[in-house]
TrEMBL record:
InterPro entries, A to Z: 2C_sensor_his_kinase, HATPase_C_sf, HATPase_dom, His_kinase_dom, PAS, PAS-like_dom_sf, PAS_fold, sCache_3
Catalytic reaction equation(s): ATP + protein L-histidine = ADP + protein N-phospho-L-histidine
PROSITE patterns: HIS_KIN
Enzyme Commission code(s) on record: 2.7.13.3
Organism: Kitasatospora gansuensis
Protein name: histidine kinase
Coiled coil ranges: none
One Pfam family of this chain: PAS
Keywords (A to Z) from UniProt: ATP-binding, Cell membrane, Kinase, Membrane, Nucleotide-binding, Phosphoprotein, Transferase, Transmembrane, Transmembrane helix, Two-component regulatory system
Gene3D superfamilies in the record: Histidine kinase-like ATPase, C-terminal domain (3.30.565.10), PAS domain (3.30.450.20)
Record-linked CDD domains: HATPase_DpiB-CitA-like, PAS
């Protein structure tokens, strides 16, 4: 024989368990209600028997019959009272407890089956007792003459059958009320179970546990950040990658996202105040791509992709592409120089050919040597040398100010290269494209204690005063974004890096007529090395 299986679905388990509970509670409640009702009926029966007994004892003729042991008169009067009141029996005894009346005349002349002594001592007694007529509710009182002398007792009984009959007459109403309550409970259980069925998509209990384990493994195993927000913007969950990318505290769950992130574009994107697909944002020195999807209950699920390394690779690719273009142009220029040199030699102008070779070979070496002399940090020197070649190819002259000096003492060369590279790239982008044939980008590096002062100026159109704060916002740009990466992140990243180190970056009009970006980086250099 197969054992019945417990339902696997959530709603079915709820329906079955709630039905069992509702039926059980209803049954217990009905039982608890019937128990005091039964006791109350017993009490009423005993009080009714006592009242009949007291009324009977108040009849002086019955007392005289008991005193004279007149069984005939006592039987006649007792039966009249029994029939009139509906009692099961009315028994009159003498002082010895001998019956003078009884429902069964054959029992007259015999001692009563229950103890008559309390009533014969003058006490009134009520009790549920078992006698010759079965279980009855009894009331016993002393029988007195007019002078107060006790001459016997009066015992009146109400049959237990009549009490049970009254109880059964009430059970129907009680069960009707219990049935109505049970039906209401079952209906509520059914509605709740159907709603739960929709909310749980009729999923099985075992599947819920498996889905929970799989979700936790998926959330904390994927390399993308995921954040779930409720309708009020509070964090419901954040996986390990999201905590790392957003620098969230461990107790971020349940807190508002605006409390966890500084004001700015990232918070605006996460809360949905800025909408779009693949929105770029910056958190410290990280470039993030954010997507936000609304959920059914006005919440949101946010995915975060770290594009920091990709952004660095794209910038390196841009630099490589620029250098490739510069090398291609230099290849043509080199061919022209070779043709010129060949012509000088064929014409026999050997002195002019030697001077031409010296002039051409020394120009580029001189630029690199000048940069290396003023900038001793190898990372920054290599950056400026590469940018100088790119600038030359774009028809822009990149120069280092005469008072520039940077020792090989940078605390964080990577951050320094990021800041300076973005500022120089921004200036080259403004000047390239033939806007001006004599475009100049000026770079100044000065040391003040253990702080580094950076100035990048250009001869472009400059930045209007009303835009000098807005250009540092994430995603803002006045340039057309290339297909391979978004614009509007470079200056935002510069500001984040500078402010994170306790410095500041400002923009104004420079000596070359265009924009001048001034950066102060405190504690950017190792003081011991400088000293």
């Amino acid at each position: 024989m197969r054992r019945p299986h417990w339902p696997r679905r959530v709603f079915a388990q709820l329906l079955l368990s709630q039905t069992v509970v509702t039926v059980g509670v209803t049954a217990v409640t009905a039982g608890l209600f019937l128990a005091p009702v039964s006791r109350e009926l017993d009490h009423d029966a005993k009080q009714r028997a006592l009242s009949i007994a007291q009324s009977t004892a108040a009849d002086e003729a019955i007392a005289l019959a008991a005193a004279g042991q007149d069984a005939v008169a006592a039987q006649r009067d007792a039966e009249q009272i029994r029939l009139a009141t509906g009692a099961s029996f009315v028994v009159i005894t003498d002082l010895d407890g001998i019956r003078l009346s009884h429902t069964d005349p054959s029992k007259i002349g015999f001692r009563v089956s229950t103890d008559p002594e309390p009533a014969l001592r003058g006490e009134s007694v009520t009790a549920i007792q078992q006698g010759t007529l079965g279980r009855t509710a009894r009331g016993k009182v002393p029988l007195r003459l007019a002078d107060g002398r006790i001459v016997g007792e009066v015992s009146v009984g109400i049959s237990d059958v009549s009490i049970r009959r009254r109880l059964l007459s009430m059970v129907a109403g009680i069960l009707l009320c219990a049935g109505a309550g049970l039906a209401a409970g079952l209906l509520a259980t059914l509605v709740l179970a159907r709603r739960l069925k929709r909310r749980t998509h009729n999923i099985a209990i075992a599947d819920i546990s498996a889905l929970l384990v799989e979700r936790e493994a998926m959330l904390h195993g994927i390399r993308e950040g995921m954040v779930a927000l409720d309708r009020r913007g509070r964090v419901r969950l954040a996986n390990d990658e999201a905590v790392r990318l957003l620098a969230l505290p461990e107790d971020c769950t349940g807190r508002m996202i605006d409390e966890l992130l500084p004001p700015g574009r990232l918070a605006e994107v996460l809360t949905g105040r800025i909408e779009g697909i693949d929105l770029p944002a910056v958190r410290d020195d990280r470039v993030l791509v954010v997507n936000r999807m609304a959920t059914e209950h006005d919440g949101a699920v946010i995915t975060l992709r770290d594009r920091t390394e990709l952004e660095s690779l794209v910038r390196e690719l841009d630099t490589t592409r620029s250098l490739t273009e510069a090398l291609r142009a230099q290849d043509h220029e080199h061919a022209n120089r070779m043709h010129t040199l060949l012509g000088l030699l064929e014409l026999g102008l050997h002195r002019q050919a030697a001077e031409f070779i010296s002039e051409q070979s020394g120009s580029h070496a001189a630029v690199a040597a000048r940069i290396a002399e003023q900038v001793q940090d190898p990372h920054v020197a290599a950056l400026l040398a590469g940018k100088a070649a790119v600038a030359a190819e774009r028809g822009v002259r990149l120069e280092i100010t005469a008072d520039s000096h940077l020792p090989d003492a940078a605390v964080d060369p990577r951050a320094l290269v990021t800041v300076l590279g973005n500022l120089v790239d921004n200036a080259l982008d403004v000047l390239s494209g033939g806007v001006r044939s004599d475009g100049v980008v000026s770079v100044g590096l000065r040391v003040c204690g253990d702080a580094l002062l950076i100035e990048v100026a250009d001869s472009g159109p400059g930045v209007p005063a009303e835009l000098r704060e807005r250009i540092f916002e994430e995603g803002w740009t006045d340039k057309t974004a290339p297909a391979h990466r978004p614009r509007g992140l470079g200056l935002a990243m510069v500001r984040r890096l500078v402010e994170r180190s306790g410095g500041q970056v400002t923009v104004d009009q420079g000596p070359l007529g265009g924009a001048r970006f001034s950066v102060e980086l405190p504690e950017a250099l190792h003081a011991a090395v400088i000293a």
